[in-house]
Design goal:
By secondary structure, this protein is of the alpha/beta class. It has 2 domains: 127 residues, Rossmann fold (3-Layer(aba) Sandwich), CATH 3.40.50; 55 residues, Orthogonal Bundle (Arc Repressor Mutant, subunit A), CATH 1.10.10. A 5-stranded parallel β-sheet has the order 2-1-3-4-5, with helices on both faces. Helix 6 runs parallel beside helix 10. About 4% of the residues have low confidence.
Amino acid sequence: MANIVLTDDHILLRSGLATLIKNLGHKVFFEADNGRHFIQQLNADNMPDIVLMDINMPQMDGYDTCQWLKEQHPSVKVLALSMYDNDSSIIRMLRSGAKGYILKDSHPVELQNAIEALMNNGFYYSDVVNGKLIYAINKMDNGDKDLHTLIQLTEREKTFLKYACTELTYKEIADKMFLSPRTIDGYRDDLFEKLQQKTRVGLVVYAIKNGIVTFQ
């Protein structure tokens, strides 16, 4: 059984989620409308194992709340629960310290699997997020960096990878590197082929595992 806190500004969704979690055999310590409300209620007597965290909330969003937890209570695991399935939202939430990420329209079985995985393994593999990314972030947090592979990257390619690990769009990366969007698309496609990746998240995995970037 996991002790869980729900942080989401949608009351009806949160209420239904609380009922579901109880039916799955877990305990809901308390509920919060946003990150600030969550922090105000948190104390030593109700420290949860897992926080189900929405991203888009007023006053204090999921990114900032997750970062605060990472700094103040790193043993508390955050499972991001969101409608967003784009790479930038996933990357930013994981950079902030989330150990898992599922969509709000996921089946209850996936939620149960995510909770059990967080309790047993400390992170959750899902179809939305490449599990290797979460694993790599956990290893980087523990100071365990993989050795560089034999693949040689140019300084330009490394710079592109560093920007790819932020929330910048490809067009914004082009502006930062003083290149055209078409050139940046070329860097991306070349790296997809060279590193045998298919998505931006895959590029982030490579960048983390090979020490090109670190998530603080």
